[in-house]
Design goal:
six-stranded mixed beta sheet; 247 residues; four-stranded mixed beta sheet; globular; alpha/beta
Length: 247
């Protein structure tokens, strides 16, 4: 059973994290499945927009800690699902939207920097506890965070690891709008459908112009991944993970 659920609503591909019993924590296989879904959607002329969603109370709790420990033992992210997904994100040409309710932890927050529009419920919380786990920020967030939020707010989120409420995230420019939980999916689908109805070549060219050169983003993501992999083997990280697992 895949924990990445795919459905279509017209020309909108809905990609849902579907591991609610684990608060949608992402495994290595889920990263592979997520990347495959986006790659297939990018190649399918019948799909115009990608929409990422989770479940009530959990967009995603971030990486599965067991996978973290497994990667630490292997000593490399090369060939992993997370490497595949991180490499893919800056290259996505079709609009990528996200609808967030509840927890958005770690990559659940940093992937939003790559989205074109983000909607969240008032109950949503955004947190990146990388430093607390002896790690560093990933997914090019060390570059995109300061660019989009300003250095001080990005430092508060990525280095201090302070949780951002939905209102704080909207104020910082991380999300577009706060939407009541009962209306989140309906409104996100409606916006996605509105984008899908636009002239698609013009829309993708506009996105490409606005994103600009993705090479610096790819380089930042690669540099972060190298340090991240090294940090996974560090004494600080191992102690932090063991403490987390013993709770």
């Amino acid at each position: 059973m895949s924990h990445i659920e795919l459905t279509r609503d017209g020309a909108v591909q809905i990609i849902r994290f579907n591991r609610p019993e684990k608060k949608n924590a992402i495994t290595n296989q889920m990263y592979h499945d997520l990347a495959q879904a986006i790659e297939d959607g990018e190649a399918d002329d019948a799909i115009s927009v990608h929409l990422l969603m989770g479940h009530a109370g959990a967009f995603t709790a971030g990486n599965d800690v067991g996978d973290f420990l497994s990667v630490a033992q292997s000593g490399s992210l090369s060939g992993s699902g997370v490497e595949r997904y991180l490499t893919l994100q800056p290259q996505i040409e079709k609009p990528l939207l996200a609808a967030v309710d509840g927890l958005a932890v770690g990559i659940g927050t940093t992937l939003l920097f790559h989205c074109d529009m983000v909607f969240a419920t008032p109950e949503s919380t955004f947190r990146t506890p990388f430093v607390d786990l002896g790690l560093v920020a990933e997914n090019a967030s060390s570059l995109l965070g300061p660019q989009s939020m300003g250095y001080q707010r990005a430092f508060e989120l990525l280095a201090m690891g302070e949780p951002f409420s939905a209102e704080r995230a909207r104020e910082a420019g991380l999300i577009n709008a706060i939407v009541p939980q009962a209306e989140l999916e309906t409104q996100a689908r409606a916006i996605a459908a509105k984008l899908a109805a636009k002239p698609q070549q013009a829309l993708r060219l506009t996105k490409r112009l606005m994103k600009g050169d993705v090479a610096p983003v790819q380089e930042a993501s690669r540099a972060e991944a190298e340090i991240f992999a090294e940090r996974l083997k560090s004494e600080e990280a191992m102690q932090a993970f063991m403490s987390f697992m013993s709770r």
